[in-house]
Amino acid sequence: MTQYIVRRIIYFIPVLIGVSLITFILMRMVPGDVAQVALGASATEESLAEFRQNYGLDEPLFDWHPPFGQYGEWVGGLLKGDFGKSYFHRTPVRDELARRLPVTIELMVLSIMVMVCLAIPIGVIAGVRPNTFLDFVTRTTAVLGLSIPVFFLGALFILLPAIWFNWTPPFGYRPFFSDPTTNLQQFTLPALAMGIPGAAGIMRLTRSSVLEVLRQDYIRTAWSKGLRERTIVWRHVLRNGVIPVVTIVGLQIAGLMGGTVIVEKIFVLPGIGLFTIESILGRDYLGVQAIALLMAVVYSFVNLAIDVAYVWFDPRIRYA
Amino acid sequence: MATEAETLDAYGVMPPSRPLIIDFLLKLRRHPLGMFGFVVVILLLAVAILAPWITPHSPTNQDFALLHRPTMDHPFGTDRLGRDVLSRVISATPYELRIALTSVFAGVALATVLGLVSGYLGGIIDFLVQRIVDSWLAFPPLILLIIISAVLNPSISTLTIALIIGVIPGTSRVIRGAVLAEKNNVYVEAARVIGASQLRIMVRHILPQVIAPIIVIISIMIPVIALLGAALSFLGLGVPPPTPSWGKDLADAQEFFRHAPWMALFPGAAISLTVLSFNMLGDAMRDIFDPRLRGTTH
What we know:
The structure holds two protein chains of two kinds. Helix content of chain A is 75%, strand content 0%. Chain A is built from 13 helices and no strands. In chain A, α11 (243-266) packs across α12 (272-281). Chain B is mainly alpha-helical. Chain B is elongated. Chains A and B meet through α1, α6, α7, α8 and α11 of A and α4, α5, α9, α10 and α11 of B.
């Protein structure tokens, strides 16, 4: 097992190099002059040149000699935990990330809670009682949930309470520990908007997984032993039925990371998602590179964690 | 479920094999939700084709009262520039459908070539292609598409290109898997023995065997890509103004949620209906074309 984890982490190194190259090259291909965007149209030639020199933008992108061009300098900084300096905010990117990460982490944790708490119970009930009215309703709702774009769901969550109750959530961000009520009011609707579409997919998978398990021989044995339905579902069906669900929860996390960009824009939450958009529009190379790399790393580790969790959930699986 | 087509008819005769599309429509009768999706998709295509003739007003002319609530003349109200929302929703349809369908079909075609070559030839080509695909797949899709759309200046064709790039990696991986499963079969060996070229084996022998997963992937990708495209437009990285766009129009409505909710409701409903109908049709297609997958994906 340890060997497997170590090998996965080693395989991760070429992916990491690929990811850093892709983000670096893509960002340099973005049209528009960074210095011009950062300083505005009225900037003089000298101030533009000075800006480029300050931020190392006059150096070649790649170079065979130390410090190996802009790419080499960026990667060298990364190894020391330095993401470079934002052109747009004129602050170190690391500070900006540290300021915004708590917002996005809270949003994602709440969304995953919404996702799992909605999807698994409903999916299990629909799987245990297939082709009933309840099953039909949940399946139709699930297709609907998969089809509504996150931004429309978010818009509805702002719009409908405003029309019906003349209530809008308090926009902006207050940290949980300084003002828990306001914080939860600010995060509930975005977490629902992000969690519900994800829940729809997980629910469908849970349902079909439970159906699959119910067909197994050992379930028939459990029935013929005269066990109660509740015992069968809780003790036998749930444990094996939930295994495939673990994988899809991991896949949904990628969707959630994309979703933060949209949801943070709608609900004006100053997290990583909003930073992504600001950095893209401001031609803030280092900001975008840091975010893309961060998300790719987190996503890859989530996938690794899921593969490891698999063994824990399902002792039949052994990685050689 | 739907296996009636392969049985003998009342006279004990095997019915003549039907064209794929007729066969599909006959089997679709057993899937009410799929039928619903199919009908709505046909209606959407009709709206898209007839859009220039059925819009009550011009989608770009700013002729009317600003932010006016829905009336008989403007069933969906007017927007912040005094444009008719119904006309904008209708005239966005051809763009939205063309972007989604073109990117999925082009992306799946390219991914098929990549998956066939990578899976069949194997070796160093396969290794390199798969490491690049690994790196692409390490990004959350929307994040990668946001960066790519920023590289290409926003326009309809660049949005399509970005979405094509979004379709290729995952799709090629699935097709490669299907090719790997096929390539060790005896019929491939036989073709090689009688001297068929690599290209011929790939196109004439393996490709027909992986058509079912390809159709299933297309049906899964259309709603996914329609949603991603709308999300990019919503973020201002897709269709540029003044071209009507459901995603962008919804984003423009954000400041007016309280006072002019119709500006957001109707474009949002249009996207949802489109994605919903493609999802329902896709679910049915998955059941019909790939019985092995039945029940595993939902």
